[in-house]
Amino acid sequence: MKLPNLEEARKRNKIDYKTIDFKIDEKLKNKFNGKKFFIKTYGCQMNEHDSENIEALLTSIGFKKVSKYTDADLVLLNTCSIRENAHNKAFGMLGRLKHLKMDKKDLIIGLCGCMAQEASVIDEIMKDYKFVNFVFGTHNLYQLPEIIDEAIRTNKQQIEVFSREGDLVEGLPVIRTNNYKAYVNIIYGCDKFCTYCIVPYTRGSERSRRREDILKEIDELIKDGYKEVTLLGQNVNAYGKDLYEDYHMGELLEDIAKKDIPRIRFMTSHPWDFTDKMIEVIGKYPNIMPSVHLPVQSGSDRILKLMGRRYTKESYLELFNKIKKTVKGVTISTDIIVGFPGETEEDFLETLDLVNTCKYDNAFTFIFSARKGTPADKLKDNTTLKEKEDRLQRLNEVVNNYFLENNKKLEGKTLPVLVEGVSSKKNMYYGYSDTNKLINFTSKDKVSVGDIVNVKINSAKTWSLDGEKVK
Ligand code: SF4
To answer: Does ligand 1 come within 6 angstroms of the Cβ of 190?
Structure first.
Protein backbone atom coordinates (compact mmCIF):
# COMPACT_ATOMS: atom_id res chain seq x y z
CA MET A 1 0.00 0.00 0.00
CA LYS A 2 1.40 3.41 -1.00
CA LEU A 3 -0.25 6.55 0.39
CA PRO A 4 0.02 10.11 -0.95
CA ASN A 5 1.90 12.75 1.01
CA LEU A 6 1.43 16.44 0.24
CA GLU A 7 4.78 17.48 1.76
CA GLU A 8 6.57 14.98 -0.46
CA ALA A 9 4.58 16.22 -3.48
CA ARG A 10 5.59 19.80 -2.69
CA LYS A 11 9.34 19.07 -3.11
CA ARG A 12 10.72 20.41 -6.38
CA ASN A 13 14.40 19.44 -6.47
CA LYS A 14 15.46 18.61 -9.99
CA ILE A 15 13.90 15.29 -10.85
CA ASP A 16 15.73 12.76 -12.88
CA TYR A 17 13.04 11.04 -14.87
CA LYS A 18 13.48 8.87 -17.89
CA THR A 19 11.10 7.86 -20.63
CA ILE A 20 10.10 4.21 -20.57
CA ASP A 21 8.00 2.18 -23.00
CA PHE A 22 4.79 0.66 -21.73
CA LYS A 23 4.38 -3.11 -22.00
CA ILE A 24 1.36 -5.00 -20.86
CA ASP A 25 1.95 -8.09 -18.73
CA GLU A 26 1.21 -10.99 -21.11
CA LYS A 27 -0.37 -13.00 -18.28
CA LEU A 28 -3.04 -10.33 -17.83
CA LYS A 29 -4.01 -9.96 -21.49
CA ASN A 30 -7.70 -10.84 -21.87
CA LYS A 31 -7.70 -12.31 -18.34
CA PHE A 32 -11.04 -10.65 -17.54
CA ASN A 33 -12.87 -11.57 -20.74
CA GLY A 34 -16.64 -11.23 -20.33
CA LYS A 35 -16.41 -8.56 -17.58
CA LYS A 36 -17.90 -5.11 -18.14
CA PHE A 37 -16.66 -1.68 -17.04
CA PHE A 38 -18.01 1.85 -16.70
CA ILE A 39 -15.86 4.99 -16.31
CA LYS A 40 -17.14 8.28 -14.95
CA THR A 41 -14.78 11.15 -15.75
CA TYR A 42 -14.78 14.47 -13.89
CA GLY A 43 -12.81 17.61 -14.68
CA CYS A 44 -10.53 18.77 -17.46
CA GLN A 45 -9.36 17.52 -20.85
CA MET A 46 -6.28 15.92 -19.23
CA ASN A 47 -8.63 13.67 -17.28
CA GLU A 48 -10.73 12.98 -20.37
CA HIS A 49 -7.59 11.92 -22.20
CA ASP A 50 -6.42 9.79 -19.23
CA SER A 51 -9.80 8.03 -19.43
CA GLU A 52 -9.10 7.24 -23.10
CA ASN A 53 -5.93 5.47 -21.92
CA ILE A 54 -7.76 3.75 -19.06
CA GLU A 55 -10.43 2.48 -21.46
CA ALA A 56 -7.74 0.97 -23.69
CA LEU A 57 -5.92 -0.60 -20.72
CA LEU A 58 -9.13 -2.18 -19.44
CA THR A 59 -10.01 -3.42 -22.92
CA SER A 60 -6.57 -5.03 -23.26
CA ILE A 61 -7.19 -7.14 -20.15
CA GLY A 62 -10.58 -8.29 -21.44
CA PHE A 63 -13.12 -5.79 -20.08
CA LYS A 64 -15.91 -4.38 -22.34
CA LYS A 65 -17.31 -0.87 -21.92
CA VAL A 66 -20.96 -0.33 -20.95
CA SER A 67 -22.88 2.94 -20.85
CA LYS A 68 -24.79 2.38 -17.57
CA TYR A 69 -22.93 1.94 -14.30
CA THR A 70 -25.63 -0.40 -13.06
CA ASP A 71 -24.66 -2.89 -15.82
CA ALA A 72 -20.95 -2.90 -14.96
CA ASP A 73 -18.77 -5.38 -13.02
CA LEU A 74 -16.20 -2.63 -12.53
CA VAL A 75 -16.94 1.08 -11.96
CA LEU A 76 -14.04 3.50 -12.03
CA LEU A 77 -14.27 7.18 -11.05
CA ASN A 78 -11.61 9.38 -12.66
CA THR A 79 -11.75 12.36 -10.33
CA CYS A 80 -10.91 16.07 -10.23
CA SER A 81 -9.75 18.22 -7.28
CA ILE A 82 -9.86 21.67 -8.76
CA ARG A 83 -13.04 22.79 -6.97
CA GLU A 84 -15.08 21.52 -4.06
CA ASN A 85 -18.01 20.91 -6.37
CA ALA A 86 -16.13 18.24 -8.36
CA HIS A 87 -15.03 16.67 -5.07
CA ASN A 88 -18.59 16.48 -3.76
CA LYS A 89 -19.89 14.99 -7.00
CA ALA A 90 -17.38 12.13 -6.80
CA PHE A 91 -18.27 11.39 -3.17
CA GLY A 92 -21.98 11.56 -4.11
CA MET A 93 -21.36 8.95 -6.79
CA LEU A 94 -19.50 6.76 -4.27
CA GLY A 95 -22.64 6.93 -2.11
CA ARG A 96 -24.76 5.59 -5.00
CA LEU A 97 -22.20 2.86 -5.66
CA LYS A 98 -22.32 1.79 -2.02
CA HIS A 99 -26.04 1.06 -2.44
CA LEU A 100 -25.44 -0.77 -5.71
CA LYS A 101 -22.78 -2.93 -4.07
CA MET A 102 -25.26 -4.04 -1.40
CA ASP A 103 -27.21 -5.82 -4.17
CA LYS A 104 -24.21 -6.69 -6.29
CA LYS A 105 -21.59 -8.05 -3.91
CA ASP A 106 -18.96 -8.72 -6.62
CA LEU A 107 -18.99 -5.16 -7.94
CA ILE A 108 -15.45 -3.76 -8.12
CA ILE A 109 -15.15 -0.02 -7.41
CA GLY A 110 -12.05 2.03 -8.16
CA LEU A 111 -11.05 5.67 -7.83
CA CYS A 112 -8.24 7.47 -9.65
CA GLY A 113 -7.28 10.94 -10.89
CA CYS A 114 -6.39 14.06 -8.91
CA MET A 115 -8.47 13.33 -5.78
CA ALA A 116 -6.52 10.12 -5.34
CA GLN A 117 -3.35 12.22 -4.83
CA GLU A 118 -4.84 13.97 -1.78
CA ALA A 119 -3.95 12.46 1.60
CA SER A 120 -7.21 13.70 3.18
CA VAL A 121 -9.28 11.91 0.52
CA ILE A 122 -7.36 8.67 1.03
CA ASP A 123 -7.87 8.93 4.83
CA GLU A 124 -11.61 9.29 4.24
CA ILE A 125 -11.71 6.35 1.83
CA MET A 126 -9.80 4.08 4.21
CA LYS A 127 -12.07 5.08 7.09
CA ASP A 128 -15.55 5.51 5.64
CA TYR A 129 -15.47 3.99 2.15
CA LYS A 130 -14.03 0.55 2.79
CA PHE A 131 -16.14 -0.83 -0.06
CA VAL A 132 -13.84 0.96 -2.56
CA ASN A 133 -11.63 -1.86 -3.89
CA PHE A 134 -8.73 0.12 -5.29
CA VAL A 135 -7.26 3.58 -5.64
CA PHE A 136 -4.39 4.67 -7.88
CA GLY A 137 -2.92 8.11 -8.57
CA THR A 138 -2.08 10.21 -11.59
CA HIS A 139 1.57 9.04 -11.58
CA ASN A 140 0.91 5.31 -11.88
CA LEU A 141 -2.04 5.03 -14.25
CA TYR A 142 -0.01 2.58 -16.35
CA GLN A 143 -0.10 0.07 -13.45
CA LEU A 144 -3.89 -0.24 -13.63
CA PRO A 145 -3.94 -3.85 -14.96
CA GLU A 146 -1.76 -5.13 -12.08
CA ILE A 147 -3.70 -3.10 -9.47
CA ILE A 148 -7.06 -4.50 -10.61
CA ASP A 149 -5.70 -8.03 -10.75
CA GLU A 150 -4.33 -7.72 -7.21
CA ALA A 151 -7.57 -6.16 -5.89
CA ILE A 152 -9.67 -8.98 -7.36
CA ARG A 153 -7.28 -11.79 -6.29
CA THR A 154 -6.73 -10.64 -2.72
CA ASN A 155 -10.15 -9.07 -2.10
CA LYS A 156 -8.33 -6.39 -0.08
CA GLN A 157 -8.46 -2.64 -0.59
CA GLN A 158 -5.49 -1.65 -2.82
CA ILE A 159 -4.16 1.88 -2.46
CA GLU A 160 -1.22 2.62 -4.76
CA VAL A 161 -0.57 6.34 -4.98
CA PHE A 162 2.92 7.76 -5.64
CA SER A 163 3.46 11.16 -4.02
CA ARG A 164 6.19 12.03 -6.49
CA GLU A 165 6.10 11.71 -10.23
CA GLY A 166 8.05 8.80 -11.67
CA ASP A 167 9.23 8.04 -15.16
CA LEU A 168 7.38 9.29 -18.21
CA VAL A 169 5.59 6.40 -19.91
CA GLU A 170 5.30 6.27 -23.70
CA GLY A 171 3.24 3.82 -25.73
CA LEU A 172 0.19 3.56 -23.46
CA PRO A 173 -2.72 2.16 -25.47
CA VAL A 174 -5.53 4.60 -26.23
CA ILE A 175 -9.15 4.33 -27.42
CA ARG A 176 -10.12 7.81 -28.58
CA THR A 177 -13.72 8.90 -28.13
CA ASN A 178 -13.69 11.03 -31.30
CA ASN A 179 -12.57 9.93 -34.78
CA TYR A 180 -11.66 13.45 -36.00
CA LYS A 181 -10.47 15.39 -32.96
CA ALA A 182 -7.65 14.08 -30.77
CA TYR A 183 -5.93 15.14 -27.57
CA VAL A 184 -2.14 14.87 -27.47
CA ASN A 185 -0.31 15.35 -24.17
CA ILE A 186 2.85 17.38 -24.60
CA ILE A 187 3.73 18.16 -20.99
CA TYR A 188 2.66 16.80 -17.61
CA GLY A 189 2.50 18.60 -14.28
CA CYS A 190 2.89 22.23 -13.28
CA ASP A 191 5.58 24.20 -11.41
CA LYS A 192 3.72 27.49 -11.17
CA PHE A 193 2.20 26.93 -7.71
CA CYS A 194 -0.58 29.49 -7.98
CA THR A 195 -1.57 29.76 -4.34
CA TYR A 196 -5.16 28.52 -4.82
CA CYS A 197 -4.33 25.53 -7.00
CA ILE A 198 -3.91 21.89 -6.04
CA VAL A 199 -2.63 20.78 -9.47
CA PRO A 200 1.15 21.15 -8.83
CA TYR A 201 0.69 18.65 -5.95
CA THR A 202 -1.66 16.22 -7.72
CA ARG A 203 0.06 16.24 -11.12
CA GLY A 204 3.69 16.75 -10.06
CA SER A 205 6.43 18.83 -11.62
CA GLU A 206 6.62 19.85 -15.26
CA ARG A 207 7.80 17.00 -17.46
CA SER A 208 7.81 17.41 -21.23
CA ARG A 209 7.43 14.54 -23.64
CA ARG A 210 10.28 14.13 -26.13
CA ARG A 211 9.56 16.06 -29.32
CA GLU A 212 10.09 12.96 -31.49
CA ASP A 213 7.41 11.08 -29.52
CA ILE A 214 4.91 13.93 -29.95
CA LEU A 215 5.62 14.36 -33.67
CA LYS A 216 5.31 10.60 -34.23
CA GLU A 217 1.92 10.60 -32.50
CA ILE A 218 0.75 13.50 -34.69
CA ASP A 219 1.91 11.62 -37.83
CA GLU A 220 -0.10 8.57 -36.76
CA LEU A 221 -3.20 10.72 -36.17
CA ILE A 222 -2.84 12.30 -39.63
CA LYS A 223 -2.55 8.79 -41.14
CA ASP A 224 -5.74 7.80 -39.30
CA GLY A 225 -7.66 10.76 -40.80
CA TYR A 226 -7.76 13.07 -37.78
CA LYS A 227 -8.60 16.71 -38.63
CA GLU A 228 -7.83 18.43 -35.35
CA VAL A 229 -5.30 17.93 -32.57
CA THR A 230 -5.37 19.69 -29.22
CA LEU A 231 -1.98 19.82 -27.51
CA LEU A 232 -2.57 19.31 -23.81
CA GLY A 233 -0.85 20.25 -20.61
CA GLN A 234 -1.55 22.07 -17.34
CA ASN A 235 0.68 24.77 -18.78
CA VAL A 236 1.59 23.95 -22.39
CA ASN A 237 3.63 27.14 -22.73
CA ALA A 238 6.30 25.66 -20.44
CA TYR A 239 6.86 22.89 -22.99
CA GLY A 240 10.48 21.83 -23.45
CA LYS A 241 12.03 24.00 -20.73
CA ASP A 242 12.94 20.92 -18.70
CA LEU A 243 14.35 19.07 -21.72
CA TYR A 244 15.87 21.37 -24.30
CA GLU A 245 17.96 24.56 -24.41
CA ASP A 246 16.41 25.92 -27.58
CA TYR A 247 13.30 23.92 -28.41
CA HIS A 248 10.18 25.15 -26.64
CA MET A 249 6.45 25.64 -27.31
CA GLY A 250 6.97 28.01 -30.26
CA GLU A 251 9.31 25.58 -32.01
CA LEU A 252 7.05 22.59 -31.32
CA LEU A 253 3.98 24.44 -32.61
CA GLU A 254 5.86 25.36 -35.77
CA ASP A 255 7.00 21.78 -36.43
CA ILE A 256 3.43 20.53 -36.02
CA ALA A 257 2.00 23.35 -38.16
CA LYS A 258 4.26 22.29 -41.05
CA LYS A 259 2.50 18.92 -41.09
CA ASP A 260 -0.64 18.12 -43.06
CA ILE A 261 -3.09 18.53 -40.17
CA PRO A 262 -5.92 21.03 -40.79
CA ARG A 263 -6.46 22.20 -37.22
CA ILE A 264 -4.16 22.64 -34.23
CA ARG A 265 -5.27 23.89 -30.82
CA PHE A 266 -3.49 23.96 -27.46
CA MET A 267 -4.45 24.40 -23.83
CA THR A 268 -3.93 25.69 -21.19
CA SER A 269 -1.61 28.69 -21.48
CA HIS A 270 -0.17 30.52 -18.50
CA PRO A 271 0.38 34.17 -19.52
CA TRP A 272 3.82 34.10 -17.87
CA ASP A 273 5.26 31.60 -20.37
CA PHE A 274 3.58 33.00 -23.51
CA THR A 275 6.56 33.95 -25.69
CA ASP A 276 6.85 36.25 -28.71
CA LYS A 277 7.97 33.24 -30.73
CA MET A 278 4.66 31.51 -29.93
CA ILE A 279 2.65 34.56 -30.97
CA GLU A 280 4.63 34.86 -34.20
CA VAL A 281 4.08 31.17 -35.06
CA ILE A 282 0.34 31.25 -34.24
CA GLY A 283 -0.04 34.29 -36.50
CA LYS A 284 1.98 32.75 -39.31
CA TYR A 285 0.36 29.33 -39.79
CA PRO A 286 -3.31 29.14 -40.88
CA ASN A 287 -3.69 25.63 -39.46
CA ILE A 288 -3.01 26.88 -35.90
CA MET A 289 -6.50 27.97 -34.90
CA PRO A 290 -6.88 31.67 -34.03
CA SER A 291 -8.32 30.96 -30.62
CA VAL A 292 -6.34 31.37 -27.40
CA HIS A 293 -7.33 30.56 -23.85
CA LEU A 294 -5.51 33.04 -21.63
CA PRO A 295 -6.59 32.70 -17.98
CA VAL A 296 -6.39 36.03 -16.14
CA GLN A 297 -8.11 35.04 -12.83
CA SER A 298 -8.30 38.64 -11.53
CA GLY A 299 -7.86 42.21 -12.71
CA SER A 300 -6.46 43.44 -9.38
CA ASP A 301 -2.66 43.54 -9.01
CA ARG A 302 -3.03 43.02 -5.26
CA ILE A 303 -5.07 39.84 -5.75
CA LEU A 304 -2.86 38.61 -8.61
CA LYS A 305 0.09 38.86 -6.22
CA LEU A 306 -1.78 36.96 -3.50
CA MET A 307 -2.64 34.34 -6.13
CA GLY A 308 1.04 34.02 -7.10
CA ARG A 309 0.23 34.60 -10.77
CA ARG A 310 3.52 36.37 -11.67
CA TYR A 311 1.98 39.08 -13.88
CA THR A 312 0.20 42.38 -13.38
CA LYS A 313 -2.94 43.71 -15.00
CA GLU A 314 -0.71 45.91 -17.16
CA SER A 315 1.62 43.13 -18.34
CA TYR A 316 -1.38 40.85 -19.01
CA LEU A 317 -2.97 43.56 -21.17
CA GLU A 318 0.30 44.05 -23.01
CA LEU A 319 0.36 40.35 -23.88
CA PHE A 320 -3.36 40.36 -24.74
CA ASN A 321 -2.90 43.28 -27.16
CA LYS A 322 0.18 41.71 -28.74
CA ILE A 323 -1.77 38.52 -29.48
CA LYS A 324 -4.75 40.49 -30.84
CA LYS A 325 -2.46 42.56 -33.08
CA THR A 326 -0.41 39.67 -34.47
CA VAL A 327 -3.00 36.90 -34.88
CA LYS A 328 -5.63 37.99 -37.39
CA GLY A 329 -9.22 37.47 -36.19
CA VAL A 330 -8.12 35.76 -32.95
CA THR A 331 -10.67 35.13 -30.21
CA ILE A 332 -9.47 35.10 -26.61
CA SER A 333 -11.17 33.33 -23.73
CA THR A 334 -10.29 33.36 -20.05
CA ASP A 335 -10.86 32.03 -16.52
CA ILE A 336 -11.83 34.37 -13.69
CA ILE A 337 -12.10 33.68 -9.96
CA VAL A 338 -14.21 35.98 -7.79
CA GLY A 339 -14.11 36.10 -4.01
CA PHE A 340 -10.45 35.16 -3.57
CA PRO A 341 -9.64 35.64 0.17
CA GLY A 342 -9.32 39.34 0.89
CA GLU A 343 -10.86 40.48 -2.42
CA THR A 344 -12.49 43.86 -1.81
CA GLU A 345 -15.15 45.61 -3.89
CA GLU A 346 -12.32 47.78 -5.34
CA ASP A 347 -10.40 44.65 -6.38
CA PHE A 348 -13.52 43.26 -8.00
CA LEU A 349 -14.10 46.53 -9.87
CA GLU A 350 -10.55 46.17 -11.26
CA THR A 351 -11.60 42.78 -12.63
CA LEU A 352 -14.71 44.29 -14.23
CA ASP A 353 -12.55 47.03 -15.71
CA LEU A 354 -10.23 44.45 -17.25
CA VAL A 355 -13.19 42.51 -18.67
CA ASN A 356 -14.53 45.74 -20.17
CA THR A 357 -11.15 46.28 -21.82
CA CYS A 358 -10.65 42.73 -23.11
CA LYS A 359 -14.27 42.01 -24.14
CA TYR A 360 -13.60 38.28 -24.03
CA ASP A 361 -15.20 35.85 -26.47
CA ASN A 362 -15.69 33.35 -23.69
CA ALA A 363 -14.99 33.24 -19.96
CA PHE A 364 -15.23 30.53 -17.32
CA THR A 365 -16.13 32.27 -14.09
CA PHE A 366 -16.02 30.77 -10.62
CA ILE A 367 -16.31 31.58 -6.96
CA PHE A 368 -13.04 30.84 -5.13
CA SER A 369 -13.00 27.31 -3.78
CA ALA A 370 -10.50 26.61 -1.00
CA ARG A 371 -8.41 23.47 -1.55
CA LYS A 372 -6.93 21.81 1.51
CA GLY A 373 -3.12 22.04 1.64
CA THR A 374 -2.79 25.07 -0.65
CA PRO A 375 -1.44 28.41 0.68
CA ALA A 376 -4.69 30.25 -0.18
CA ASP A 377 -6.59 27.92 2.13
CA LYS A 378 -4.80 29.57 5.06
CA LEU A 379 -5.60 33.17 4.03
CA LYS A 380 -8.11 35.16 6.02
CA ASP A 381 -11.38 35.56 4.17
CA ASN A 382 -13.90 38.13 5.40
CA THR A 383 -16.11 38.22 2.32
CA THR A 384 -19.46 36.51 2.80
CA LEU A 385 -20.73 33.89 0.35
CA LYS A 386 -23.64 36.21 -0.42
CA GLU A 387 -21.21 38.97 -1.51
CA LYS A 388 -19.26 36.49 -3.62
CA GLU A 389 -22.41 35.23 -5.31
CA ASP A 390 -23.45 38.79 -5.99
CA ARG A 391 -20.05 39.54 -7.60
CA LEU A 392 -20.26 36.41 -9.72
CA GLN A 393 -23.68 37.41 -10.96
CA ARG A 394 -22.52 40.93 -11.82
CA LEU A 395 -19.47 39.54 -13.59
CA ASN A 396 -21.53 37.04 -15.56
CA GLU A 397 -23.87 39.75 -16.78
CA VAL A 398 -20.91 41.73 -18.13
CA VAL A 399 -19.10 38.78 -19.78
CA ASN A 400 -22.33 37.46 -21.31
CA ASN A 401 -23.02 40.83 -22.92
CA TYR A 402 -19.62 40.70 -24.61
CA PHE A 403 -20.15 37.11 -25.82
CA LEU A 404 -23.33 38.29 -27.57
CA GLU A 405 -21.80 41.53 -28.81
CA ASN A 406 -18.83 39.65 -30.35
CA ASN A 407 -21.08 37.01 -31.88
CA LYS A 408 -23.36 39.66 -33.42
CA LYS A 409 -20.36 40.98 -35.35
CA LEU A 410 -20.19 37.61 -37.13
CA GLU A 411 -23.69 37.84 -38.64
CA GLY A 412 -23.40 37.74 -42.43
CA LYS A 413 -19.83 36.35 -42.28
CA THR A 414 -18.76 32.89 -43.51
CA LEU A 415 -16.79 30.67 -41.11
CA PRO A 416 -15.03 27.30 -41.56
CA VAL A 417 -16.70 24.68 -39.34
CA LEU A 418 -15.48 21.20 -38.39
CA VAL A 419 -18.70 19.14 -38.30
CA GLU A 420 -19.13 17.26 -35.03
CA GLY A 421 -22.63 15.89 -35.22
CA VAL A 422 -26.19 15.95 -36.41
CA SER A 423 -28.64 17.84 -34.24
CA SER A 424 -31.97 16.35 -33.17
CA LYS A 425 -33.69 18.85 -35.50
CA LYS A 426 -34.11 17.78 -39.13
CA ASN A 427 -31.21 18.73 -41.47
CA MET A 428 -29.41 20.52 -38.66
CA TYR A 429 -25.74 19.97 -37.92
CA TYR A 430 -23.31 21.40 -35.40
CA GLY A 431 -19.60 21.96 -35.10
CA TYR A 432 -16.94 24.47 -34.10
CA SER A 433 -15.48 27.33 -36.10
CA ASP A 434 -11.73 27.98 -36.30
CA THR A 435 -12.28 30.56 -33.53
CA ASN A 436 -13.91 27.90 -31.35
CA LYS A 437 -17.50 29.14 -31.64
CA LEU A 438 -20.31 26.60 -31.49
CA ILE A 439 -22.22 26.77 -34.79
CA ASN A 440 -25.59 25.15 -35.55
CA PHE A 441 -26.35 25.06 -39.26
CA THR A 442 -28.61 23.71 -41.97
CA SER A 443 -27.43 22.12 -45.18
CA LYS A 444 -29.25 21.27 -48.39
CA ASP A 445 -26.64 18.67 -49.35
CA LYS A 446 -25.19 15.79 -47.39
CA VAL A 447 -22.69 16.66 -44.68
CA SER A 448 -20.61 14.13 -42.76
CA VAL A 449 -19.11 14.30 -39.30
CA GLY A 450 -15.42 15.21 -39.75
CA ASP A 451 -16.00 17.45 -42.81
CA ILE A 452 -14.78 21.03 -42.67
CA VAL A 453 -17.49 23.15 -44.36
CA ASN A 454 -18.18 26.85 -44.88
CA VAL A 455 -21.14 28.20 -42.93
CA LYS A 456 -22.74 31.60 -43.45
CA ILE A 457 -23.88 33.02 -40.10
CA ASN A 458 -27.49 34.21 -40.06
CA SER A 459 -28.07 34.93 -36.40
CA ALA A 460 -26.06 35.17 -33.20
CA LYS A 461 -26.92 34.02 -29.69
CA THR A 462 -24.89 34.39 -26.51
CA TRP A 463 -23.26 30.95 -26.60
CA SER A 464 -23.78 29.84 -30.21
CA LEU A 465 -24.44 30.96 -33.76
CA ASP A 466 -26.95 29.76 -36.35
CA GLY A 467 -26.22 29.57 -40.04
CA GLU A 468 -26.41 27.66 -43.31
CA LYS A 469 -23.80 25.76 -45.25
CA VAL A 470 -22.56 27.56 -48.34
CA LYS A 471 -20.09 26.55 -51.08
S1 SF4 B 1 -0.61 27.46 -13.78
FE2 SF4 B 1 -1.47 27.87 -11.72
S3 SF4 B 1 -3.69 27.45 -11.98
FE4 SF4 B 1 -2.65 26.49 -13.73
S5 SF4 B 1 -2.29 24.36 -13.09
FE6 SF4 B 1 -0.42 25.52 -12.60
S7 SF4 B 1 -0.71 26.16 -10.46
FE8 SF4 B 1 -2.74 25.54 -11.24
So the answer is: yes
